[in-house]
Amino acid sequence: MSSTTQSLTLQSSPSVLRKVLLLDAITCVAMGLLLIAAAAELARMLGLPEDFLWWAGVALLPCAALMGFTSRVGAQTKPPGWLVWLVILGNLAWVVASLLTVAVWFTPTALGAAFVLGQAVAVVALAAMEYRGLRG
């Protein structure tokens, strides 16, 4: 097997998909806890409503639980496709909400726009890796 073929096989293995889902869960927990714990401070810096940030943080925790659960289901095989699709679609919905947050719903500071758009890019990257893992 060539190194390119081997590399592609490794990238699409079920264990890689599980690791990406787990990374997604961990980042959701981290961001959720940050938004909950520091909503007031972040609201001042980012120019976004405190309640909005707090509830966004709360919303991330069940998402993280779903991602963590999905990463563990069927430990010897690839996670169920429908669960992975649920995670991917949820991530894409988060990205759309992030774009609406910056462009329609609120007028954040420059730092706020960078923060929201930066995390949206990270979420797109995770969704793309999950999709690639699902397809492999």
Cα end-to-end separation: 17 Å
Coarse morphology: elongated
Strand percentage lies at under 5%
Order of helices and strands: HHHHHH
Question: What value does the Rg take, in angstroms?
Answer: 17 Å
Count of helices? 6
* Average residue pLDDT: 91
Regions with little confidence, pLDDT below 50 for 5+ residues: 1-10
**Approximate helicity band:** over 70%
Please tell me about this protein's structure.
The protein is mostly helical and 136 residues long. It has one domain. Helices cover 85% and strands 0% of the residues. It contains 6 helices and no strands. The protein has helices spanning 3-11, 14-37, 39-46, 50-72, 81-105, 110-135. Helix 3 packs across helix 4 and helix 4 runs antiparallel to helix 5. The longest helix is centred in the last third of the chain and has 26 residues, at 110-135. The two termini are 17 Å apart.
Quick tags:
136 residues, mainly alpha, 0% strand
Question: Secondary-structure blueprint of this entry?
Answer:
Blueprint: H1 3-11, H2 14-37, H3 39-46, H4 50-72, H5 81-105, H6 110-135
Helix pairs in contact: 2-4, 2-6, 3-4, 4-5, 5-6
Give a summary of the structure in a few sentences.
The protein is an all-alpha fold and 136 residues long. The protein contains 6 helices and no strands.
